[in-house]
Amino acid sequence: MQLKQLLGAAAITLASAAFAQAPTPKIIAIASFGEHPALNQVAEGFKARMTQLGYVEGRQVTYDFMHANFDRSLVPQILQRAEAKKPDLIFAITTPLNQAAVRGIKDKSIPIVFGSVVDPVVAGLVPDWQHGSAWSSGATILQDFEASLAFVKQVVPTVKRVGTLYNPGEDNDKTNIDLYNKAARKVGLEVVAVPVDNANDIPQRAQSFAGKVDAIYQIQSNIVQTSIPVVAQVARRNRIPLFNSVYSEQLKHQLAGFHAVSYTKNGEHAADIANRILKGEKPANIAPYVPKASDFDALISPQGLQAVGLSVPSTLANSPWILK
């Protein structure tokens, strides 16, 4: 055999061996309760961080994204589809979807990492704040309401009563309202919390704040966040400054401001936990991630304040919080 042929054969052999040794890409199923800018940011942040950690899509990892369109009746189908893929890990977004996954995923060898969950202990996802469960841990969006309401007071110094809408049937909202009330007492504010469990009722419930509150700081509530433009319209009509716990680029000048957990960072922190699990660490040994100060964005909209007859206080005129 000629030298050129020998070299060619050797190259083919080496290439074949390398191909044979190439690891099979990890399969990660991403299951979300629905498509919403904030929830999409969680998924995007997760994937971007996984890339930074060395999981290149199409090479070291493949993703299968699915969502239930905020329809609880579709959640079991979504989870069955996820489990049928026999993934190495499921990344589940929102509390309702994670609660259903804990009950619905039969193969307990598939670890579940959660994102966009306020209180995983109350939700029954983990036993306590120091540990994951046998198959689940993740990153929370636990709000620092004392900091958020103090921010509202800085922007609207005359505020005495603050309102929010919440869903009494969702564990996230129950936890948020409890924390909201405790924080309000600490910063000297009265809370007007209005329950809503049907999106069609949101305009009427938001209207009930008229004459009863000086500002609205809206909690992270799935049912309400999908209708924030509606809440913003009602708040403007009644000259009530509206602050949100979820940032929206599209609505940045329709609201008075935001004190919000970064949903992108939530996905990034969930990816860090997923990486630890994929490398062999047991979920039970991984404490749920709790947001730090650096995970929050404080933002003020001069246009949003002007629309309800207010302006940025002189003490904040040069603040880095001002939206352009």
Quick synopsis:
The chain has a 6-stranded mixed sheet with strand order 7-6-8-9-10-11, sandwiched between helices. The protein has a 5-stranded parallel sheet with strand order 2-1-3-4-5, sandwiched between helices. The chain has 11 helices and 11 strands. Helices cover 38% and strands 18% of the residues.
Description:
The chain has 324 residues and is α/β, with parallel strands linked by helices. The protein has 2 domains: 163 residues, 3-Layer(aba) Sandwich (Rossmann fold); 138 residues, Response regulator (Rossmann fold, 3-Layer(aba) Sandwich). Helix content is 38%, strand content 18%. It contains 11 helices and 11 strands. It has a 6-stranded mixed beta sheet with strand order 7-6-8-9-10-11, sandwiched between helices. Strands 2-1-3-4-5 form a 5-stranded parallel beta sheet, sandwiched between helices. β1, α2 and β2 form a beta-alpha-beta unit. α2 packs across α10, α3 crosses α4 and α5 crosses α6. The protein starts with a helix and ends in an 18-residue tail after the last helix.
